[in-house]
Input
Amino acid sequence: MASDETREAIVVGAGPVGLTAALALRAYGVPVTVLEAGPVDRQRPGSRAIFTHSSTLAVLDRLSPGLGADLAAHGVYWNTQRTFYAGREVYAKTYPDPPAGTYPHFTSLPQVHIEAHLLEHAKAAGVEFAWDQEVTDVVADDAGVRLATAGGTTWRAPYVVGADGSRSVVRHRIGARMEGSRDEGWYVVVDVAELPEPALPRERHFHYAHPAVDGRNVLVVPFAGGYRVDLQLVEGDDPAELASPEGVHAWLAAVLPPGYAERTTWVSTYQFLQLVAHDFADPARRVLLVGEAAHLFAPFGARGLNSGVPDAESAATAIVLARQAPGPAAARAAVEAFALARRSAALFNRDAAGEALAHLRPDPETAARIRAAAERAPADEAAATWLEKAPYGPRGVPRAETVYRY
Ligand SMILES: Cc1cc2nc3c(=O)[nH]c(=O)nc-3n(C[C@H](O)[C@H](O)[C@H](O)COP(=O)(O)OP(=O)(O)OC[C@H]3O[C@@H](n4cnc5c(N)ncnc54)[C@H](O)[C@@H]3O)c2cc1C
Output
């Protein structure tokens, strides 16, 4: 039935970034409603954003005390990383355990569990949820924002956070364009449930040119309850064939111990995306884009959720400042500052992902450097470390993420 609802702030999308934005608004004392297209009991597939950095845990704990610690307690942590080239180990390092009472450098648990914890904390913080509310139109002007939903409801608020993911309707309706590229190469990603026997080591393994799968690259990453295995396809591979039940079974059985190829719980394919919205807010500076509504990066390097969380915190801060601003110019300036800072962080991440891609899909010169480094490693520590780190791109946090505060 058609109705007209007015709220103080609205977040579109109950994914991890929208939930974080809602939590942040509540932490700053702003009443907020989340409009989610899916039903209340929806099931979200796959491990997806498993790798949550300690800096993300710290932000979440700041917004909802205990949340970061909850995620760390439910996830797994590994401190051994190994790299192989054509089946030969070229790098291995075991880091000391984190000191008692501190966060590990990261925690690894499926996104669906991260979302469940966020949802629980958001409900406890008083966030209002409206499920089955697919936003179909967005109109923003100096007076505020009007959202239309497929069910015929009109929602109004002075400020809206667009957290509706990669196919964002909000982004489309405010006229923000995605800029960047999509690489031609394909990856197949598979979750396998863990087995007590034979147990896989709780270690991250990256294989260059794995001999059991005709020299394709393979990444194995543990998470709470299982392992994620990424297979990098080569030219001429058919993604549909290698992601089919028979295709997955064949290559998985070649790279994991017996029993695991029958334990597949999720299969997907992806390409390297490096897309950033040309603007993170609408022209009236009333709608703020965050997470995958604003940028799309490849999973290697774990930049999706880990940059979406600071987007969400910054968007909430900007809304608080805009609400308290002495006049419209100052209110616009607060949203403007958010849009500039988070876009610059996204461009940093896009470039970092681009460097990872240049390593994973090397030109002939880089391929020769990789081969030469593999010959010298592990005797040459610098070569070994380069082989280990380069697939994920340069480390470091965008400047805006550490110094940007209103
Ligand atoms: C294979 C894979 C592996 C990944 N690994 C990692 C990783 O290790 N680390 C990491 O940080 N990131 C990773 N990512 C990225 C991560 O999954 C995303 O960054 C994250 O899901 C983005 O969250 P979001 O809240 O922005 O969007 P989403 O999770 O897509 O949530 C959007 C929400 O909006 C809702 N919605 C959509 N349209 C509408 C509408 N019109 N109206 C109302 N609601 C709407 C959707 O139903 C959904 O609930 C991975 C992604 C993939 C695919």
